[in-house]
Amino acid sequence: xxxxxxxxxxxxxxxxxxxxxxxxxxxxxxxxxxxxxxxxxxxxxxxxxxxxxxxxxxxxxxxxxxxxxxxxxxxxxxxx
Length: 80
Prior knowledge:
Strand order of the largest sheet: 1-2-4-3
Radius of gyration: 12 Å
Strand content: 15-25%
Number of strands: 4
Structural class: alpha+beta
Low-confidence stretches: none
Shape: globular
Number of helices: 3
């Protein structure tokens, strides 16, 4: 991972709170919730089974939109 990406990740983490304690970052981004980029700039399609419990999951029609800034960055910029 590039230093610039690491710096952006640190900035994102510093600007938010996570009810899961940033488990994704603690795992080196190996343990990520399931989400899919579907082309909307600031959102992902949340595919996680426990999505209704996540404070970043927004129900919309028949899907949940992930609006976690860190998860969105990882999916859109780093393709994770």
